[in-house]
Design brief:
The chain is mostly helical. It contains 3 helices and no strands. The relative contact order is 0.26.
């Protein structure tokens, strides 16, 4: 897969996923909200670590800096 997630975007995704994970592990979240946020956290973590987001690809969007042509 082509990289389309920039460094700041990747860091934010991973940090948000970790915060949600901590809230889930400590029991601060429960019920359906916990399940939904758990899935969101997993998606954010995987896309952050991989540096590629399928939704960005489908929309033709990228937060990676453009390479200089030369």
């Amino acid at each position: 897969m082509k990289r389309n997630v920039g460094t700041i975007d990747r860091v934010l995704r991973i940090v948000i996923a970790l915060v949600i994970g901590v809230l889930l592990i400590t029991g601060q979240l429960g019920g359906a909200l916990a399940v939904i946020l758990g899935i969101v956290a997993l998606i954010l973590l995987v896309t952050g670590l991989a540096g590629s987001c399928p939704l960005y690809a489908a929309l033709g969007f990228s937060t990676c800096p453009r390479k200089a042509s030369g």
